[in-house]
Write the structure tokens for this entry.
Amino acid sequence: MNMTFLQEMFQSITQRDALLRRRQGDGTPPDHRRLVEACHRLLESDGEASSIALASRALGMYQRLVPEERQRFFARLASDFAAEPAQIDAAYARYAEQRDNATLEALFEACEPRRQELIRRLNLTSGGTVELVRMRADLLGLLREHPELSAIDADFAHLFGSWFNRGFLMLKRIDWNTPASILEKIIRYEAVHEIRDWDDLRRRLDARDRRCFAFFHPAIGDDPLIFVEVALHKGLPARIQPILAGEDAGIDDPEIADTAAFFGISNCQTGLRGISFGNFLIKQVVQELKQELPQLKHFVTLSPVPGFAQWLAERRDDETLPEAVRESLAELDDPDWHSDSERAEHLKAVVKPLAARYLVDEKNARGLPLNPVARFHLGNGAELHRINWLGDVSTKGLRQAAGLMVNYLYVLDDIERNHENYTANATVARSSEVKDLARKARKLTKGETSK
């Protein structure tokens, strides 16, 4: 059978239906009821060609829904496309009588929500994966006010975990010779340190001591999933401003660098939030860099601490803290506090130990570190290595973290052990320096003098 002919035929069907969708889109936007009916028809379809056409139409209808109708559509997905309780009970009864692989498989099939098969079929059409990623982005925006939709998100996450498996991801080096269409997206998606213009981007990509890598997926095309910016350095960097300004820490030749510093990791697709790419990205970038520059000894991040300033502000009302500590924290209200060296040194003695307490001891409802960046790197097997005072004195850095930045150190021989300890016991791997700061924090909060 001529597979090329079939592929061209299916593509022709999809393109013809897309043209029809555009023509139909000139009228009144459809409501969610019509889309639900289209989804039922898609699930009932037996032919591949007809399924592709039906999937294309359904996605086209979704794109034209207004936000209120999208929320109603998701509500119908939750209620009308769930698993059938009667089928689950019957399948479980058969499994209870005859515990074999066939009855177990039937039980699994009965337990799967019909939404998952619907999502699979929607993915049949050309560009379906991209549209489904966008659909999940819409859904994520609704979850705070509509937690009852979380089951749908679990279905998306389950399927995306397979579709965006590491085996499908392609690592590419991003440099100044990368096509402009991709470079524009790097500027737009940068989430940690804003790229102001093309000159700013060139400083980050074109210097000999810089590297940038991104993951791509065949179904998403030239839209990156996640990218990481790297600065080659002599020693561990403590401040972000020299890196962003293009200073090279005295490195004229990358061959003399001993450290690769990951200073920006940006997830590009909101609809893929929670689908883990970062751990794969860091590990593969480490391998790429080690192959290019075998003299590199240290792989470390220079990471922000989002939420720390807010946590500090909440401590000012904590009457269990000594009054002197709360008075010191009130000095952070002055936007220029960091410019006064004497005041900054006084605050350093208070804020750095509290940062260690925040990163090591403060937990969320799941018993994991409160800080999201810490969860990411510790979960990947890194060590909380160093807390850098005035590491980011930009307006954003002062506002979100009182100017602090953190080095998370990836020691290749320790990654697996750290990851297992974190996963099993939420253990925070940390250096002796951070341990000392945590001890100072305990003394500080009891009103004892730290030495």
